[in-house]
Amino acid sequence: MLSPILFCIIAASVVVAQPGMYHFTIGYYAASHLIHTFFRVLLFLLLHNCSTFLLNVSLSGPKMIDETTRWSQCKDVNQSIYDFQMETLQGQFTDLSQYRGQVLLIINVATFCAYTQQYTDFNPLIEKNANGGFTILAFPCNQFYLQEPAENHELMNGIMYVRPGNGVERYKPFSSEYLFQESCPQTVEKIGKTNELMYNPIRANDITWNFEKFLIDRQAPQQLSV
């Protein structure tokens, strides 16, 4: 890349070294022309490479994900979910062993996610399976696009009056704070360290966005990511 510039300088020096104003003028303009040409070629190459890159990106498009691959069995571990605790919105720790023998649906939620309307599906799901020992554990998370900025004391109001809002108190768990607050831990910036809570059985690529769901049967640690 430096050789054309060195050539211009040498050429200019040789010509300028000749006696007389005529030779000086010719040398000056020759060097200027060569330098100008060099930068024009350099600019052309840069623009060409950029346009080629953008064209390749536009033609390839975003990477498509096969959603069926997300229905997978989580890896086996020595510990089960019942060996851990979670901290509720009120700052109290709850032993997950109290859910032993129940079917658990674990969801990472976010108030300002596009999937927030799924909240309205949780309560009928709980009521329909109430006699069968079914519980939903919702974990607010601010990791994905900062879609859960609420503090712990703000989170329930955000759900009731903002998203999904619209007087969501008509749904039993939200109006009486039955089950939901008891099953809702504190807001976290990230899903968590792999050796904390029940995250150890979960691979990094098992959670790609908010409202991922993990279905745990009565004989945990068997889990199914849905």
Topology order in helix (H) and strand (E) letters = HHEEEEHEHHEE
**How is the biggest beta sheet arranged?**
5 strands, mixed
- In total, the number of domains comes to 2
**Total DSSP E strands:** 7
Query: What sort of overall outline do the alpha carbons produce when their principal axes are compared?
Result: elongated
Gyration radius (Cα, Å) is 32 Å
Strand neighbour order, sheet with most strands: 1-7-6-4-5
InterPro entries: Glutathione_peroxidase, GPX_AS, GPX_CS, Thioredoxin-like_sf
Keywords: Glycoprotein, Membrane, Oxidoreductase, Peroxidase, Secreted, Signal, Transmembrane, Transmembrane helix
GO biological process, one term: response to oxidative stress
Catalytic activity: 2 glutathione + H2O2 = glutathione disulfide + 2 H2O
Q: How would you describe the overall organization of this protein?
A:
There is one protein chain. It contains five helices and seven strands. It has 226 residues and is of the alpha+beta class. The chain folds into two domains: 3-60; 67-225, Glutaredoxin. The strands form two sheets. The chain has a five-stranded mixed beta sheet with strand order 1-7-6-4-5, with no helix packed on it. Helix 1 (3-16) packs antiparallel against helix 2 (21-60). The longest helix is centred in the first third of the chain and has 40 residues, at 21-60.
